[in-house]
Structures are given as C-alpha cells and as structure tokens.
Amino acid sequence: MRFKRCCWGANMSEERMKPAIRFAGFADEWERRKLGELALFSKGRGYTKSDLTESGTPIIHYGRLYTKYETVINEIDTYTNAKEGSVYSQGNEVIVPASGETAEDISRASVVEIAGVLFGGDLNIIYPDVKIDSIFLALSISNGSQQREMAKRAQGKSVVHLHNVDLQEVMLRYPRKSEQIRIGTFFRNLDHLITLHQRKYDKLVCLKKAMLEKMFPKNGSCFPEIRFAGFTDAWERRKLGEIVSIKSGMSPSAFDIGSDLYVKVDDLNYSYREQLDTQMKVAENSRCSMIKKGSVVFPKRGAAIMTNKVRIMGASGYMDTNMMALEPVGICSGFLYMFIQRTGLYRIADTSTIPQINNKHIEPYDIVMPNIEEQQKIDGYFWNLDRLITLQQQALDKLKTLKKAFLEKMFV
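The chain above was modelled as a monomer; its predicted structure follows.
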C-alpha cells in the first residue's frame, strides 16, 4: 500500500486543507463545510440500560460507545423488548453519544452497518449524504480537529451533553469520496488486525488462568488436576518461612549513586514475568546486604499489595524500604513466583488499616510443593507462556501505536 507525504512551505495557511500523509494518486485539497449541510439528523428514544434483556430485538445503548467502542459495529450482543415508535437502523448510520462524563468521552462516533437494530435513548444519529462515507465520517468525528470542536461544544459539568444542533455546526474537512473510502477501508483493516491480536492475547491470558488453577493443588489436596507425565507423588506441605529467607529493603538515603540494581514499588508495573534487571541505579554501600538474583520481590505495604504485584529479581541488587524479598532456599525460584502469583499475598495481608505484610504473615503461610524436578517443569511451562503473552501484548501495543500515528497524520 503506497502512501505519500505532503509538505508545506513557510507560507502555508493556518487552516491547512491537506493531510500530512495520504494515499498515492490523491493530491486535491480537502473541502470544508458544516456537517449540517452534508447530513440529516435524528435521535434514539425510549430505552435505558434498565430495559436491556437477555434476548429479544438487538439494541445499541449509548453506554456501548464507552465500554465497548468500535469504529464499525456489525455485531450486537445486547437486546430488549421492542416498543412502539422505536427508531431502527437502516444500515450505515453514524451514532454519537448525547451525554457522557467528560467532553472528550462524548466526542466519539461509530458506524452501525447492519439494519434492524434499535437505537436507545441518548444517541445522536447522523445520516450522511452520498458525498460522505460513513466510516470516514465516524473516524473524522472521533479524531483530529472535528473531535476537538465537538468537545468544545459539549455542555454541562457533572454530566456533559451534545445535541444534534451542536453536531450540525461542526466543520467537517473531507476529500472526494474515493479517497474517503480508501481511508475508511485502511482503518477498518487495521482495526480487524488489532481485534485478532487482542483475541489471541485474551486467549493466552485465559489459558494461563486456567492452567494456574489446574496445575496447582486446591481445596487442601496434595495432587494437582493436571501434571507432566512421569510425576505421580503427592506434593509436600510446608510453611513458607521454612523454604525462603525473608529480606526487607532499605531507604534510598542509605545508598550512594552507583550502577547496581535498585528496585522500587513503581518498578513493578510490568505485565507478567519481566524480570527486574534494568531498573534504577544503586549504590556501592557495603552496609547493606544484596538481594540475590532469582529472589521474589513484592510491596510490603500500601494499596500495591492488593494488586498482587510480584516479580523476580533478574540480577542481584537492592530494594526500597517499602519492599520485601523472598530468597528461595530449596525451592525453584520460578515455581515460588508462580505459587505466589496464583494465591496472592493480599490474602494474608493485614488490612485493618493500611494493607501490610511482614514476617509474621509470611512464615506460617502454607505452601504445597512437588520435588525440584517437577517444580522446574512447571516453571518452564509458565515461563514460556508468560513470554508468549508478553510478545502478544507488545505486538498489540505496536498496532495501537501505529493506528494512533496514522489517525494524527491522515486527517486535517
């Protein structure tokens, strides 16, 4: 697919009418007209969230544009019992929420491709004329100068409102129809690719959750539901304090600036098992003992405990005073990490005031564990699964970043 980059000289007018990037073969300036001159308008009616049912006539409620936003809607999973006088889609309408929490939230639009769908209350409905492609219009309204203009027109404080009379005054910038269709098709295909990657990511996350349940014993048992071939012995029940050495962090003031690893609670904001081996800088201070590579680290106080932020030290280093570490003694580091990630240390935290964990909570904590060979097998399986999840997340993030960049460059 060929793009070309447009350039403007120093005397370019303030109101530029060409996008920075466009498809080869298109060079004309875009037109600029009020949306009210290019479309008809209507409004959904008669339905609120309380009217939704498990089956019946498909319906779009305005909340969908916040909770499950899509540029193109062609599948409906919400239903209601149809009422007399309802408004139905004919296909290819553009819908915009009429109310929301912020002006930015309300400035978004979707195309309803299929006919026969009910439009619930608080939806503005736009019927573009033959000059305007529906997908292009929805993308324009949701991005760039049109979105900013809509946000300015939104009225209200705790709840903001946007009416059809406001939409009619929005200045739409648009090229000829053939270029609109090319732009719409491009972003539709990009959205489809993002959806496929999102589904792969979601499936991997669900697989990990299921395997964490099945590959560790539960309900007091010493046998997991699923295990690797060749392992049949019962898992051993131990106290966590018997198989780890518990370490606490030190205040940053105890260190000089150096080149060693120093981990803070904020450094735990990673997906899955990104080992902590490139965080911060530390110190050459001999008063403090290093936390060994492979130790499992986590917050020891505050709200971060409840989010179960647990990671593995990828190199020996130091920790902040708000953190604790478990150095494995006779247990596989990765197995310990997965056990804690599965069970959640928040379950044993003192939450009477500020959530906190200390030695008295950790030492008596029950753990069931197989022999070291089976631990390593389990660790290897989840390490590979975590790696797949991370790679899928990175691919998904790259596609979303790419889409954002194109949205900024392909509209005026």
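Residues 8-14 have pLDDT under 50 and may be disordered.
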